[in-house]
Amino acid sequence: MRPLYPNRLKFIATSAAIFCHITPQWYTSIMSNIKLLIASANDKFTISQISSIEKAAELAEKFISKNFDFNYEVNVIVVPNQYLFNIIPEDGISGRTYKSDMIVISVNTELEIPEDFFYETLCHELSHSIRWKKVPERSITLFENIILEGLAIILEEKAMTDEKKNNSQYFLKEMQKTNKVTIDKILSVLENNLDDITYDYNKIFIDGDENFPRWSGYRLGYYFVKKHLQDKNININKATLESYKKFSK
User: Fold this and answer.
1) What's the pLDDT score for residue 1?
2) What's the pLDDT tens digit per position in 2-38?
């Protein structure tokens, strides 16, 4: 999820009504496992944008199928960003996974978003989908949510590398350039709170403050999971399907 906000269940309960109200037109493309639905409300999406989204979805499905037992259907719903949730301004796109079979991607339709950005975002969200479908546990604590996001970031990184795509989003570049000094600064504030169930999600994962740089929770996740892969000498495919208990704080 980039970025994730609370109230998933509320969204799921109301999403059908919202979409019916604001999206009188749909573009639908059914692949082997992904059902792509693009809400072209008021003709917000151009033919070029629709084509890019469809190609990215096909490539993402191919990538996930090569790396996991992708044997279930996922609805991927693409909407103009002004209707549902905020996007990352620098990238013009963001996504959320609400259930293993429901992903929503929000797009700034006024920009020509690169096809690579759709692909990268969808691979990140499909990490959550695969994990929730295959692993019988949910992220409850702050640490578990940090690991959940770290797994998704590193899978999207692998997706870009495997397909030799260099046009990474600003978000991923920010994760990759986070140094140990920044990680230590974040941990100095959070080290006694990693098992917390209640915490300020927006401050830690999204906006930051004087103690936290923007996207601190994601940065920690990227660091923790990278370290786990190195220490255990395993790949991201295996780690994606591991219990949170396997990861060290």
Assistant:
1) 63
2) 554 333 333 333 343 344 344 446 778 778 999 999 9
Question: Which pairs from 160-163 meet CB under 8 Å and 24+ separation?
Answer: 160/116, 160/119, 160/120, 160/123, 162/63, 163/59, 163/63, 163/119
Q: Kindly report, residue by residue over 67-99, the tens digit of the pLDDT.
A: 999 999 999 999 998 666 779 999 999 999 999
* pLDDT at residue 42 in the model: 59
Parallel/antiparallel/unpaired status of strands 93-99 and 74-80? unpaired
Question: What would you measure as the largest C-alpha separation in the chain, in angstroms?
Answer: 51
Write down the residue that tokens 């084509």 correspond to: 51
User: Residue 157: which of 248, 230, 93, 237 has the closest Cα?
Assistant: 237
Class of domain 8-134: alpha beta
Cα dist. 14→7, 22, 77, 149 in Å? 11, 13, 14, 25
Least confident interval from 34-43, 56-65, 92-101: 34-43
Distance CA 214, CA 216 (A): 6
Intervals of CATH 3.30.2010.30 along the chain: 8-134
Tens-digit pLDDT profile for residues 99-108: 999 999 999 9
d(CA 24, CA 10): 22
State pTM to two decimals.
Answer: 0.89
Token readout for 25 is: 């037109």
- In terms of DSSP H, where are the helices of 23-112? 47-67
Q: How many CB atoms lie within 10 A of CB 51?
A: 12
Radius of gyration, CA atoms only, the chain: 17
What does the angle CA 146 – CA 107 – CA 170 come to, to the nearest 5 degrees?
Answer: 50
